[in-house]
Amino acid sequence: MIEALVAVGSYLLGSIPTGYLFVRLTGRKDIRDFGSRSTGATNVLRVGGWKTALPVAVVDVLKGFLAVFLAARITADPAFAAACGLIAVVGHCFPVWIGFRGGKGVATALGAFAAMSPAACAASAGLFLLVVGLTRFVSLGSLLAALAFPAIVLARGGPGAAAAVGLAVAALVVLRHRGNIARLRAGTERRLGERSS
């Protein structure tokens, strides 16, 4: 019973529509009517600038971290806690509060990864920064970092549950980036710093 409640709580925590709420508070309309139509920090950055995007990113990371951290504290089951990280990412991508149209899961995944395996998360975050620094494609960095996390966990001899959940999260991130992948292949993907109308 407690696991069911924690799982539901993880979804509800992840489903807090941070980008949607912050953009509304700055006097703009629905963030999903602009840019990539995502509620994530990258789209908020393009639409509202750093002052709006930074708190969105921080809160979205905390959602994933807290889902794993609190589940581990409550149940003392690392595998279940890792699964709650995936549930939080699902909540972020498909939030019940705004019609199941949310973000792409990257920041929330980062928080969950940090709670599951800090060292592997740091390595995948470093890969993200390197790719974005070289190409200015946030989507490419996000995809490669998400895919790298489970491989790094396994390479370090980390828990199989963290690697399995990391792989599931990476699959969801790839799914949510289908449009970005198509634009990367077509050469039309926006780079970091390019604002949306």
What tags apply to this protein structure?
0% strand, 197 residues, single chain, mainly alpha
What is the strand and helix layout of this fold?
Blueprint: H1 2-14, H2 18-25, H3 41-48, H4 50-75, H5 78-93, H6 106-116, H7 118-135, H8 138-155, H9 160-176, H10 178-186
Helix pairs in contact: 1-4, 1-5, 2-4, 3-4, 4-5, 4-6, 5-6, 5-9, 6-7, 6-9, 7-8, 8-9
Give me the count of strands: 0
Helix content: over 70%
Order of helices and strands: HHHHHHHHHH
Strand residue percentage: under 5%
Kindly, what is the distance between the CA atoms of the first and last residues, rounded to a whole number of angstroms?
Answer: 48 Å
Sketch the major β-sheet. none
Backbone shape: globular
Radius of gyration: 16 Å
Count of discrete alpha- or pi-helical segments spanning 4 or more residues: 10
